[in-house]
Amino acid sequence: MATRRHQSGSDEAPRLARTGLAGGIGPALLLPSALVVKAVVLAQLHGHPLLQPEGGLDSEVYVRLARQAAAGDWLLGHEAYFVSPFYVYFLAVVFLFSGSSLLAAKIVQIVLGAAAVGLIFATAATWYGRRAAWVAGALAAATGVLTFNEVLLLQSAVDPFLTALASYLVVRALVTDRLTRFATAGLALGVFVTNRPNALAWAAVLVVLLAVAPFSRKSLLRAAVLVAGLLVALGPVAVRNRAVSGEWILVSSHGGLNFYIGNNADADGTYHAVPGIAPDIAGQVRDARTVAETAAGRPLRASEVSRYFYRRAWDWIVLRPGAALRLFLRKLAYCFNAVDLSLNYSYAYYRRDEATLLRVLVVGPWLLVPLGLVGLVAVPRRTGAHGFWIWAAFVPVYAVSVAAFFVSGRYRLPLLVPLCVGAGAALVWLVEVARARRARPLLLAATALILLGGGANWNWRLDDGRSEERTQMIVRLVDGGRFDEARAILEEARRAEPARSEIRQALARVHESGGVAASLAGRHAEGAADLERAVQLDPESASAQLNLAVAYAQLGRHGEARTHAEQALRLRPDYPQAQGLLDALSH
Predict the structure, then answer these.
(1) Is the model more confident about 423 or about 536?
(2) How far is CA 148 from the centre of its chain?
(3) Which of 9, 329, 438, 506 is deepest in the core (most CB within 10 A)?
(4) CB neighbours (10 Å) of residue 412?
(5) Residue 17, pLDDT above cutoff 80
(6) How far is Cα of residue 156 from the mean position of the Cα atoms in its chain?
(7) Predicted pLDDT of residue 4
(8) What residues contact 139, with CB distance under 8 A and at least 6 apart?
(9) Nearest one of 49, 84, 78, 52 to 66, comparing CA atoms
(10) Domains contained in the chain, CATH given
(11) pTM for this structure?
């Protein structure tokens, strides 16, 4: 039976060539269209002040390490990698040939992103046919969060391509049943792991499924060849870690800290800073070691630091298994939720608050999760049912690997690749079923879509980072003296969320800053008007009351100046400037 099944798989090789990247005009049309879309978004966001690699963000660390490597220090110091190394070296190679151009790196990234669309097309064509492939490719091209990540300087920028490449090569191996295909699939999967280490869970499951389903000498050989490909990619990373630090660390040493962040008494499934550890990569490297060594009372190696945080997390899990299970299930739900949990950058802000093409790239988890899951589970495949389930295991396995730690939008990003494939299949199948008036499967599919859609769009009251990103933008505008733009952003935010006191207070501070700047420039009436608005918005602000008093005094409105100076002193009794103004007005 196994021989006949795999022989049948081999017969599919010509069909794979016709429906894959080499066949037809599908990719030839989709790829340039996707590239144009991504290029427009890149042009719109490349110079955005909040997206620059600075301020201690992860992107700053990746760029610094890449420039260090491009300058000749390819081993990058004497410690095991704390961050996933692939993206560092990807940037370094681009910098080497482009003079450290950030724009060049982003251009390469969107080209890879367009290639990912083609790979999604080819994967969908293999399992479901060309019509499903067209829809899957179009959905991928219209998924805004994929394009957004591809214009960032973060490891998630290449995740869509690496996921799609590994996924497609696994499909080719399963359908053609050639050992060389399993070797290339293992190599691609290993490269993916060097960028996203938790993908190692899928690699492990893939090896086991290949070996045992069904078990035979040939199945063991397939699994062994896949492992060999994996080791070719992972071996240099592990050897480098051993050479510079004396420790065998497969990829990077930050797993323990991330596991603790997602599993402790205060964890809620998302990123939160650990007490005593700065919330940036450099601080985590330094402070995690300090915390662990203080607890141990001796110097620790990188692997020992990681194990310290793993132990702390497991201590809590063992002590509170019920709470840990509930938290894990909640994190699993977050992996399939419509909200993109921000880490460094808020996709919600750039899609909704900035005038970019992202506003019309409306496809996202809200749609891909219900459609994708229905497509992967319910829609009949053209070929290779056995191999299909080995490939599709990526979705639950990868989701579990994310939920084991903590969830962010960029960590769960690879899930969207196979979900695009399933969603394309589901849409085509639903149209076919509706045309054939097959009531029962249509009713079952509709029920599943309603339930899955409800779950994907459930309001967990998650923070998408939009408010924080907006605040950062306002600070930049105020620092640059662009008060009108800052006010416009806050007025819009206040209209959208009138009950939020922090928005009203922030708007008051912007009016206050603008009023002070206008007064200092000699535009006293304009300054007073801004300061009046600040006091109206936040009458409890002592500084706004005092600045308005000063503005009134400059305009000769001494009675009103005295009233507001007295109010400032009531709000802050130890306010020497307010007392000084009152004394001056009394003479």
Answers:
(1) 423
(2) 9
(3) 506
(4) 23
(5) no
(6) 6
(7) 35
(8) 363, 367, 368, 420, 423, 424
(9) 84
(10) 2-251+337-456 (no CATH), 466-585 (1.25.40.10)
(11) 0.86
